[in-house]
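Let us work through a complete example step by step.
Step 1: write down the sequence.
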Amino acid sequence: MSNYEHDRIRKVLPEIEARTSPTFCLAKWHHVTIYLHLGETHSCYHPQPHTIPLDELKNNPSALHNTKEKKLERKMMLEGKKPAGCTYCWNVESMGPDYISDRKQRTLSIHEGDKSRLPTIIHNPWDMDVNPEYIELSFGNNCNFKCGYCHPRYSSRFLDEIRQYGPYGKNYTGTYDVDWFIEKLYESEEINPYIEAWWKWWPEVSKTLNILRITGGEPTIHGSTYRLLDEINKNPMPNLELNINSNLGANPRVFDRFIEKLKPIIEEKKVREFKLFTSIDTWDKDKAEYLRNGLDVKLFERNFNKYLTEIEGSRLSLMITFNNLCVSNFDSLLKKIL
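Step 2: predict the structure and record it as tokens.
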């Protein structure tokens, strides 16, 4: 964090907290990650995801974000109390005023993005429904990879392996057993009530959304991703930043379809900005493909180049898991990027 950002937080945050409380966090209202295949939600990565009760969705599809549990946490924050799920930030702040927690950073960034959000919260009931400005969304765990640092909750291939061979034994990163979540997993997008609720909420939430990030599983093999791109093509969202995470490992027929759906959205400026995020850890074929089980380096490069070549003004970010197996030849990836 820059000194400027640090100083801005120390100057502006007390003004916000004077109107709300010392434990107020705008992310609890305006940020959300939703795992539609699991029926779970949380407002940032620090609190554990909690289940979205299906009965809350019957008459209110916005309960994908506005669950009763989350509303009660908002009430606690307005009263100056500390929800237990947010312990990470409370621990950072307990070290002293010079330690800036994510709560403080996100509150300031969301507030400065649209200063009407704060008075809306202050002057309305604590249990109001909110259309968030940032949504991260997973349509399913269907994936063509089974990376070792992933989990069966987010990779269907990893899940299939555990079902066939059972959980791992004596593995320091976890056993990866599935019994505790498999009963709530929706493996089909077509019969998932949470995806149904999403499309009911979409016409309303799309009006105010600033950032939408699609993750997975692997979004390029999810039917719902293509429905979303079709929706944006029909009804442009010029204020939206659209982000998609992809392993760039889909077969050429599937990936080329993705490019064709994406191309008019970007070229005709139907969104404010588009970013594609992908992951690879080294360019050494043996190590790269070992680290990300399912990766074909040649196919990755083909899809990488297809996107950069065919999408005008394209942006692509690499997310790299730097680890012991790529230390000795990490320069191969840096050279390839250059």
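Step 3: interpret the result. The mean pLDDT is 95.
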